[in-house]
Amino acid sequence: MNPSPESKKKSRKRVTVPQLIEKKRRGEKITMLTAYDYTMAALLDASGVDTLLVGDSMAMVVQGHENTLPVTLDEIIYHAEMVGRAASHALVVVDLPFPINHQGIHEAVRASGRILKETRCQAVKLEGGAEQADVIKALVTAGIPVMAHVGLRPQAVHTMGGYKVQRNREQLMLDATTAQEAGAFAIVLECIPAEIGKELSESLQIPTIGIGAGPHCDGQVLVINDLLGLTSGYVPSFVKAYANLKETIQAAAAQWCNEVRENEFPGDEHSF
Length: 272
Ligand code: KIV
Description:
- By secondary structure, the chain is an alpha/beta fold.
- Helices cover 41% and strands 14% of the residues.
- The chain has eleven helices and eight strands.
- It binds 3-methyl-2-oxobutanoic acid.
């Protein structure tokens, strides 16, 4: 039933933080996808994706909440442990749930330390730029790689008045450059105009990973449920679905129900 039991896992070299920075220098695009459980993480890891993100988007696509705010540290650790165990190639990054990185340096280091110790993942991501400089510095000093996240910050959905494109160029430049100076190894740019995504990607030394930030970013990230066509309801316009698994799953389940009701399943070949 499981695609890749741990015992059969091929050991491949893990993508590292310096390699991601080197990829930017060489002009090679970086790929990042979200994952929330062992099965999906093993499949995505085998696809060769560079980075897996245990995103707090799990609040919406796994837990069924209306925004990312409810997810707790214990919940994200529970999911990240499965992803960390499945991934032997991708660098695994874990979101710091709201509002941990706003509760002071001590709390951010304590929570990130738990994430690295308890999940085997390699880095954390936090939403925020300039105002998070002290937290980023403290985490990096403690040996915890940090991916920053600027532009649309879903944890600030109430302050931002919804999921809107962020167009304040000066603020975006300040957030991104301050995060870089504080020691972030990469930076997610969410929902910003493509021309600002280009300007930031050209002016920063660290890689930019875009989602709704245009084609010039050093890498791209998507929520896996969106990429696979599993999302019901509203799907942002920056998403491209590469499969329609919602229909595939519903059709398979309906066919199974039908075959059970018609006494077609299980057949002789499925019986002892
Ligand atoms: O939580 C998440 O999945 C994210 C990505 C959309 C970047 O932050």
